[in-house]
Amino acid sequence: MKRVLSSLIASLSVVGLALGFVFFSASLTPSLMPRSFLVQGALSGVSAAVGYLFGVVLTWLWHYLQLPIPKTPPVVVKAAVVVFGLVLSIVFLWQAAGWQNSIRDLWHMPPLDSAEPYKLAAVAGVVFLVAVLLGRLFRLTVLWTSDWLSRFVPRRVSNVVGGLIAILLFWSVVEGVLLRAALHFIDSSFQKVDALLEDNVPRPTDPARTGSPSSVVGWNGLGRQGRNFIASGPTATDIGAFWKGEARDPIRVYVGLNNADSIEARAKLALQELQRDGAFDRSILVIIVPTGTGWVDPAAMDPLEYLHRGDVASVALQYSYLSSWLSLLVEPEYGSESAKALFREVYGYWTTLPHDKRPKLYLHGLSLGALNSQISADLFDVIADPFQGALWSGPPFESATWRAVTAGRDPQSPAWLPKFRDSSIIRFTNQENQLDIPGAAWGPIRIVYLQYASDAVTFFDAHAFYREPAWMRKPRGPDVTASLRWFPALTMLQLLFDMMIATTSPMGYGHVYAPEHYIDGWVAVTAPAIEPRQIDELKRHFADTAATIEGHD
């Protein structure tokens, strides 16, 4: 084993090693999320492998163009590169904890004493070696394919075609076949397991509650996320005690994947349950698109129910068990048909009701739910009888509407907090209430995007591979470190890892949205009869209880 490892190291490209060390070192600089040594080690290992790949490609191109080769002995050059690379790595590792603390300080997190460099380097080394071995496998595939094709076509043609075939083969296996198949298998497996799981959430006995013996929606079919959504949330007693007055029990409807066999059947079931529960007699009705796992964020819905003293009905339809970031990378359209079907059923019935006797209709979604909620309603279908508004939080980078609005913003406004046209339809906010815009008046539809500048699910940008994202320019968001720098290719990798760990941030940063920040959004969208003093009291109430809210994106 030692001989094989020595042989592998001896065969490494000199230019590849040089760029690998540079990429490893630069990967230690901060991005949006603070990282543990394990996450940083994985990122640094992948980054070093990408740098090595660039070096190998440059070396091949140099030889292919028959450019002059330096006469310095390769052993001497490689030794110099290794020494330089180790010194550079040590210098950057020494600063790594400080860079991570530049984020943690902004987020009011305890500082790191050390970046645990030995553990970090060990993880990075393992990841780098695995990546190099996969690269060698790819090279062998190219050579074998090229040799076989050279029997029928000229060698240069066979080289090009062999390389393209190998790329297509590896891409289809990793992304197109294996990954998608694995995700679909995991999703369907979770659905079957969830149907069998029993938790400690008791079945409601109140006939008006979804999942009760009187409900048209089966309790067991709701799944873990659905049962938690139905069983949690404030009661009329809780809300009344806070306001020191009368309140109503909010209506919550949820239909899980195991409640019916098709999207259409689940959407119709949701409408039947809304009608049975009297949801259309409430003043507020919210169509929720949950996250990829089926989770509905209590930090979003609980404050709304308090704001309107329980006179709120909401409905959600599950479409997956996968984490949102996985679906975003592989199948961003996941859940769109489910969101459209639910909106079609609810909106279709809502439009048949007298305007003065029906609830105000709103849309809501977090993360992948925000993406799918945005495409659930076609403007041309609703313009004659529009819903009243929407609150979308953590809109993913794949959101077409969000991208178009951000790109068309007032150029004087930053990309992380855009101002769009006259702000009569769409406004943006973050940790501080940014929705009271002087001189702006709301139109018939009110749409609010709640987003944090540190949310990589929103601000991941594949184009960061070759250009600096607009949100990195000054002035930056209040929760983004000034130490963040753009590096070609590397910044995209950092943001990719940030996106994967975005839900591990403390509440109020990253992809974990705080209830007190939702309050400003809901006040702007739904315009409740409430005084500023009461809004502040409600924010303090939820800030005190926010630690008990658990995320499941």
User: What's the multimeric state?
Assistant: single chain
Tell me the distance between the termini. Answer: 42 Å
By DSSP (H or I, 4+ residues per run), the number of helices equals 19
Q: Biggest β-sheet: count, sense, barrel?
A: 7 strands, parallel
What count of structural domains?
Answer: 2
State the strand order across the main sheet.
Answer: 1-3-2-4-5-7-6
The averaged pLDDT comes out at 90
User: In angstroms, what is the radius of gyration?
Assistant: 27 Å
Binned, the helix content reads 40-55%
The amount of beta strand, in percent, is: 5-15%
Order of helices and strands: HHHHHHHHEHEHEHHEHHEHEEHHHH
Shape annotation: elongated
- Poorly predicted runs are none
Number of strands: 7
Structural class: alpha/beta
Please give a structural write-up.
This protein is α/β, with parallel strands linked by helices and 553 residues long. The protein has 2 domains: 2-186, no CATH class; 206-452 and 513-548, no CATH class. Helix content is 51%, strand content 7%. A 7-stranded parallel sheet has the order 1-3-2-4-5-7-6, with helices on both faces. Helix 5 crosses helix 6 (155-196) and helix 18 (515-526) packs antiparallel against helix 19 (532-545). The longest helix is centred in the N-terminal third of the chain and has 42 residues, at 155-196.
